[in-house]
Design brief:
Elements: H1 4-15, H2 20-33, H3 49-59, E1 67-71, H4 79-96, E2 99-103, H5 109-112, E3 118-122, E4 125-130, H6 132-141, H7 152-158, H8 167-170, H9 175-178, H10 188-193, H11 199-216, H12 218-225, H13 232-262
Parallel strand pairs: 1-2
Antiparallel strand pairs: 3-4
Helix pairs in contact: 1-2, 1-3, 3-4, 11-12, 11-13
InterPro entries: ABC_transporter-like_ATP-bd, ABCG_transporters, P-loop_NTPase
Subcellular location: Membrane
Membrane topology: Multi-pass membrane protein
Length: 263
């Protein structure tokens, strides 16, 4: 029930070590970059499918990651919206030096032209990793002739069993490399440094988002709480207690921050 800008704002407040004003500026900057300025104050549920997909991508872009992993970002979209999404990702990767890895099913030819590398997987093995011209050369080397007006990747999927697994890639990573344990922070200060906010700050942010959602859709909240006749007053007490508790928690958090700043 949030607007597009609010969705990015809450993500920025949770992921960035910045003041609320800086998080707001980052959310607005990302809305403009994603071409969503015209729906900044519209609820996400009321916008088009392509715009909703861009909002969901923006939620994971607020902290400016070097690598972006996307699972079927074009699924359920028409060809025009899918092409717009991939173009946006391509431009973003080029402008900001990001690596974008995505899974996609049956992409059109115009989408394929935007991809630098294509990875084909079959039977737990990598059958191809490289550019489209390299894939076409491998198919020709295997004795295949690509019919006219046929997508190279589509034809490769039909004849993927004839492509030998890429031995170089298959042997590049061993089980020990993949399963190597990641060292965990040893001290409590190092663990706190791994998060942008403290636990109390995250509770305040998420509680504020929950209260805003409840105030905008009280009927939906009542339905979820199961407002039966026998539970009406108890559920109402739970909701009022949560709102009051949220205010008290925010007051305690602000008092604690001011107390630490004075010291």
């Amino acid at each position: 029930m949030l607007t597009g800008e609010e969705s990015l704002l809450y993500s920025a407040r949770l992921r960035l070590r910045a003041a609320p004003g800086a998080a707001q500026a980052r959310a607005r900057e990302l809305m403009a970059e994603l071409g969503l300025r015209h729906v900044a104050h519209s609820r996400v549920a009321s916008v088009s499918g392509g715009e909703r997909r861009r909002v969901s991508i923006g939620v994971d872009l607020v902290h400016d990651p070097a690598v972006l992993l996307l699972d079927e970002p074009t699924s359920g979209l028409d060809s025009g919206s899918a092409l717009h999404i991939v173009k946006m990702l391509r431009d973003m990767a080029t402008a900001h030096g990001k690596t974008v890895v995505l899974t996609i099913h049956q992409p059109g030819f115009r989408i394929l032209e935007l991809l630098d590398r294509v990875v084909l997987l079959a039977d737990g093995a990598v059958r191809h990793h490289g550019s489209l011209p390299f894939l076409e050369a491998r198919l020709a080397g295997s004795g295949h002739s690509i019919p006219a007006h046929v997508n190279v990747l589509e034809y490769a999927m039909e004849t993927i069993d004839t492509l030998k697994p890429d031995v170089v890639i298959a042997t590049a990573l061993t089980y020990q490399d993949v399963a190597a344990p990641v060292p965990s922070p040893s001290s409590s200060s190092a663990r706190r440094a791994a998060y942008a906010n403290s636990a109390a700050a995250e509770v305040c942010i998420l509680s504020g988002r929950f209260v805003k959602t409840v105030l905008r859709t009280p009927q939906l909240f009542a339905a979820r709480m199961g407002m039966r006749e026998s539970m009406r007053w108890s559920n109402l007490g739970v909701m009022l207690g949560f709102v009051v508790g949220y205010r008290v928690l925010c007051f305690v958090f602000l008092w604690y921050r001011c107390h630490r700043m004075r010291r």
